[in-house]
Amino acid sequence: MAAPGAEEDVFGRYRSPLVSRYASPEMGFNFSERRKFGTWRRLWLYLAQAEKSLGLPITDEQIQEMEANLDNIDFKMAAEEEKRLRHDVMAHVHTFAHCCPKAAAIIHLGATSCYVGDNTDLIVLRDGFNLLLPKLATVITRLADFAEQYADLPTLGFTHYQPAQLTTVGKRCCLWIQDLCMDLRNLERARDDLRFRGVKGTTGTQASFLQLFEGDHDKVEELDRLVTVKAGFKRAYLVTGQTYSRKVDVEVLSVLASLGASIHKICTDIRLLANLKEIEEPFETDQIGSSAMPYKRNPMRSERCCSLARHLMTLVMNPLHTASVQWFERTLDDSANRRVCLAEAFLTADIILSTLQNISEGFVVYPKVIERRIRQELPFMATENIIMAMVKAGGNRQDCHEKIRILSQQAAAVVKQEGGDNDLIAQIRAEPYFSPIQGQLESLLEPTSFTGRASQQVARFLKEEARPMLTLYQSKMGVKMELAL
């Protein structure tokens, strides 16, 4: 195939499906070139404004010229400058200066590349968390409603994916919610722990700014504070090298990887339940499950979540390696790696949260299927209750145990060797020995008597943990932050 021409459309080049296929427009914009370089220009403006306020010879006219050209970015010129200079920051300094000839002399004054690069990354990470947190809270809310609705519906529990004691559909869902509540706390903490790199200079010593302000330490500290506040941060890191510590990226991607693990577990459970035909994710009227098998109802949303969650979980290895090999004040081998892994982590987290929200808003539950599976396993589980009832009716515990052991093995043979239904209860009804408790068998086999305190646990968990956490989160968030467009 011939190489594509320069004028070819976007379909002739590879595009990351994280953006082209899955991620929300908001998260896509947050990591876009326009957002990045627009933020660089705002940071240059903040620096100039702060320097002017502290007495440097910067004019109102220069500030106004910068303000008027924050989003007037000539990307073609910037690309040409970068190709010539082999330096992305200086390419954009020149491009901005071309728009602002009067301010050209004071753009980037005293700063190093990481002033715009690292500070922009911190802004974008913060805003990425602000986009993820409402989505996570919405998922928890939807699952909490589902758990409340099905708090009392018995279902077969599984350990080792083998039949175990009964639980309820709502109680199982609370296990999912509890993990996501941990993620909500972790994401909030990671966001709130972020600080601004601030105005630190080439090796973090602020030497260039100390020279600008003729040795006035107070003015240098005030410059750092002013720019930090203008960027929307309450605190800046007190010490940095040329960059902020790359351990920060480790903490950020660790909580996102943990979220990925939670969602992978939840969606794996949903896939297994779909196989059992007990619970399914939404399935559209015209949706096709298989190109070859028209009857298929594949859990493709849950499969997508698992697939992308695996990718998210692996991304944390990148900042771990990067942090470990940063020599002294900084090496540049962090740069290319971070361009990929930071954006991909947030884009992937955004996708799986949006998909899980869609799933949680359209669960289809099949109570009759759930009941049938319980009936297949419950007779074996009920044998201890039957023994106790017989003893209370005057029977001998050892004799009763032996009778049930023999009948249980016969019933198991019917199920495993003949493919029939579990007929243990029918055999017990037909056995004269058990005549003293024939009238109690129905109550002894009532599924709700085998779910323990599952219903009560759901009610307490939702009341005391899940819903209060959501209320607290909503009160702290207030209005949703709007990204500058």
TrEMBL record:
Record keyword Nucleus present: no
Any one GO MF annotation of this record: N6-(1,2-dicarboxyethyl)AMP AMP-lyase (fumarate-forming) activity
Substrates-to-products reaction catalysed: N(6)-(1,2-dicarboxyethyl)-AMP = fumarate + AMP; (2S)-2-[5-amino-1-(5-phospho-beta-D-ribosyl)imidazole-4-carboxamido]succinate = 5-amino-1-(5-phospho-beta-D-ribosyl)imidazole-4-carboxamide + fumarate
Transmembrane feature ranges: none
GO process terms (BP): 'de novo' AMP biosynthetic process; 'de novo' IMP biosynthetic process
Pathway participation: Purine metabolism; AMP biosynthesis via de novo pathway; AMP from IMP: step 2/2; Purine metabolism; IMP biosynthesis via de novo pathway; 5-amino-1-(5-phospho-D-ribosyl)imidazole-4-carboxamide from 5-amino-1-(5-phospho-D-ribosyl)imidazole-4-carboxylate: step 2/2
Entry EC number(s): 4.3.2.2
Presence of the UniProt keyword Lyase in the record: yes
Pfam families given in the database record: ADSL_C, Lyase_1
Residues annotated as domain Adenylosuccinate lyase C-terminal: 378-462
Keywords, in A-Z order: Lyase, Purine biosynthesis
Gene Ontology cellular-component terms listed: cytosol
Signal sequence annotation: none
Protein name in the entry: Adenylosuccinate lyase
Function: Catalyzes two non-sequential steps in de novo AMP synthesis: converts (S)-2-(5-amino-1-(5-phospho-D-ribosyl)imidazole-4-carboxamido)succinate (SAICAR) to fumarate plus 5-amino-1-(5-phospho-D-ribosyl)imidazole-4-carboxamide, and thereby also contributes to de novo IMP synthesis, and converts succinyladenosine monophosphate (SAMP) to AMP and fumarate.
